[in-house]
Specification:
Blueprint lengths: L2 H10 L16 E4 L3 H12 L4 E4 L13 E2 L1 H9 L11 E3 L1 E6 L2 E6 L10 E3 L2 H15 L2 E3 L2 E8 L6 E8 L4 E6 L2 E4 L6 H5 L10 E10 L7 E5 L2 E3 L6 E3 L1 E7 L4 E9 L10 H10 L17 E6 L8 E2 L2 E3 L15 H19 L4 H8 L1 H24 L2 H11 L3 H12 L9 H12 L4
Parallel strand pairs: 1-2, 1-12, 2-8, 5-14, 12-21
Antiparallel strand pairs: 3-7, 4-7, 5-6, 9-10, 10-11, 13-18, 13-19, 14-17, 15-16, 17-18, 20-21
Helix pairs in contact: 2-4, 2-7, 3-7, 7-8, 7-9, 9-12
C-alpha cells in the first residue's frame, strides 16, 4: 500500500459518512470530471504523490464544443504537463490572430514574451481531452470512465463533503467514493456544486459558443481567424449582431467554424444561434467550402461561464476549477488555459494542505485557494466584465473594429489585453499598463 493510500485510510477511518470497507474507492482527493481542468488537477496532484481518483461520466474519446484553438497560455500549461506537442504528434501550430472587421484585415503575431511561448496550437477536443486524461493516468491518477457522479456524500455533523455517489459502467452500478477533499471539475452544469448549494451568480456574464466543421481548402492556416462583425443577412435588411465569428483551420482537411455571443446583448435569447451560424457561413466565399454538403458533423453549442460566476471556489471540502468555477476569460471566451491553470493552482494548495499536521491547519491552507484565484485573475476579470458590457452594443464593436484595425500598434495592445498575454515583470510599456490596470481593478 502506498503512503498516499495509507494517509487516505488514516484520514477517513472512523468517519460516520463511510459505510463501506476501505477499498479502491477511497483516495486522498476525488476529482469529478476529466476535462482539461480535472485532468490538470489530477496530474499535478498525482505528480506530488497524492492518491487521486479521476471520475469521468463519459468514455473517451468524446466530443466537446470548442473552437479547438489554443493560445500561448494554454501551450504553456501543456508544456508544464509534459505533453508531446510536436507536429509529429498531431498538433498544428499557429503564429497568431488574423482579425477581420470594419472593412479591414490585420494579422497579428502572438507577442514575444519571456513568460509564454510565441505560438498557439490547434487540436480537436475529442482527442485533446483524452490526451490530458491519459497523461494524468500515467502520472498515477486512477481514472474511472463511464462514472456518472450523482451527488455528494456530506457529513451531517460538519456539512463537509466526504465523497460522492455515482453510477458506474454500462450497467450503471451504484457505487460510492470517499476522500477528505473533492474537486468539482464537472463543467458549466456542475451538478456537484449545485448539490452543495453553490449557484450561478446572475451578475456575471455568460457566453454561448456554437460551432461546426467543414471540409475546406482553408484547413491549413498559420493564423487563427476572428471576425469582429457578425452580420445576419437573412431578412430584408442586414442586421449587425452582438457577437463574433471564428475560422480555425484544423490541418486535417477541415475548418472549425463558429460564433460566440454574450448574454449582455438584447438578442441573446431572441435568436436561434445555430441558424445564425448557417446564415453566416452561407455569406462566405463559395470556394471556402462552408456549405451544408461539406459539413462533417452537426452544429453544436455550449455555455461559457465567465468571470468567477460561481463562488466561493472553496467551501466545506469542495474546490471548484475550470468552468465549474466560471473561469472563462470574459475578454475572449477562452476557457482551456484557465481550466488547466486553475487545476494547477488547486493542486498546489491541496498538496500544501495535505502536509499540515492538524485538521485546523489543513483548513487554513485550503481557505487560501479562493484568494489565490482572485489575486491571479480577479482584477483582470473585473476589467473584462466592463468590456463585456461595452461590446454588448454591436454598434460599439463595429466602431471599434473600423477605427482600431487601422492602428496596428493599438491592436497589438488589444491582443495582449484580450488574450491576457503579458510579462508580469520586465515587460514593455504595454505590459506595464495592462498589469497596472489589473492590479488596481477590484478583485471581485
Amino acid at each position: 500500500m502506498s503512503s498516499a493510500r495509507q494517509h487516505a485510510d488514516f484520514e477517513l477511518r472512523g468517519d460516520p459518512a463511510v459505510t463501506e470497507p476501505l477499498s479502491d474507492h477511497t483516495a486522498d482527493v476525488i476529482v469529478v470530471g476529466a476535462g482539461p481542468a480535472g485532468s490538470a488537477t489530477a496530474y499535478h496532484l498525482a505528480r506530488a504523490g497524492l492518491d487521486v481518483l479521476l471520475l469521468e461520466k463519459t468514455e473517451f474519446p468524446r466530443e466537446k464544443v470548442c473552437g479547438d484553438g489554443l493560445t500561448p497560455r494554454a501551450v504553456k500549461q501543456l508544456v508544464a504537463m509534459g505533453i508531446d506537442i510536436s507536429e509529429e504528434a498531431g498538433w498544428l501550430r499557429n503564429k497568431g490572430l488574423r482579425i477581420i472587421g470594419g472593412g479591414s484585415r490585420l494579422q497579428l503575431d502572438w507577442p514575444d514574451l519571456a513568460s509564454f511561448p510565441d505560438y498557439g496550437l490547434v487540436r480537436k477536443r475529442d482527442d485533446f481531452d483524452e490526451q490530458l486524461a491519459r497523461n494524468a493516468q500515467k502520472a498515477g491518477a486512477r481514472l474511472y470512465e463511464r462514472c456518472n457522479v450523482s451527488g455528494p456524500i456530506v457529513d451531517d455533523r460538519t456539512g463537509r463533503i466526504t465523497g460522492v455517489t455515482a453510477k458506474l459502467g454500462e450497467e450503471k452500478r451504484e457505487v460510492t467514493f470517499h476522500a477528505p477533499l473533492v474537486v468539482a471539475a464537472d463543467g458549466n452544469s456542475t451538478r456537484l456544486s449545485l448539490a452543495m448549494g453553490l449557484h450561478r451568480r446572475e451578475d456575471r456574464p455568460m457566453g454561448v459558443a456554437v460551432r461546426t466543421y467543414f471540409t475546406s481548402p482553408r484547413h491549413e492556416d498559420d493564423y487563427l481567424e476572428s471576425w469582429l462583425e457578425l452580420w445576419d443577412r437573412r431578412g430584408a435588411q442586414d442586421r449587425l449582431l452582438p457577437g463574433y465569428g471564428w475560422i480555425f483551420g484544423m490541418g486535417d482537411g477541415t475548418s472549425n467554424v463558429g460564433l460566440g455571443v454574450l448574454n449582455t446583448s438584447g438578442s441573446f435569447k431572441e435568436l436561434d444561434w445555430r441558424e445564425v451560424l448557417k446564415a453566416w457561413c452561407a455569406s462566405m466565399p463559395e470556394d471556402w467550402g462552408y456549405t451544408p454538403e461539406n459539413m462533417t458533423g452537426p452544429i453544436r453549442g455550449a455555455a461559457l461561464p465567465m468571470a468567477f460566476n460561481r463562488q466561493p471556489h472553496y467551501t466545506k471540502g469542495l474546490l471548484l476549477v475550470g468552468d465549474a468555477g466560471g473561469l472563462v476569460n470574459p475578454f475572449n471566451g477562452e476557457g482551456i488555459a484557465y481550466a488547466m491553470e486553475s487545476g494547477q493552482i488547486a493542486a498546489d494548495v491541496i498538496v500544501q494542505a495535505h502536509a499540515r499536521a492538524t485538521a485546523g491547519q489543513r483548513e487554513l491552507a485550503l481557505q487560501r485557494y479562493p484568494r489565490v484565484l482572485k489575486d491571479t485573475y480577479g482584477g483582470y476579470y473585473t476589467l473584462g466584465r466592463a468590456f463585456v458590457k461595452l461590446i454588448g452594443n454591436p454598434k460599439v464593436m463595429q466602431i471599434a473594429a473600423q477605427r482600431g484595425l487601422t492602428h496596428p500598434l493599438l491592436m497589438k495592445f488589444t491582443l495582449k489585453l484580450l488574450a491576457n498575454l503579458t510579462d508580469p515583470t520586465g515587460g514593455d510599456a504595454m505590459d506595464r499598463i495592462i498589469n497596472g490596470l489589473s492590479k488596481v481593478a477590484p478583485k471581485a
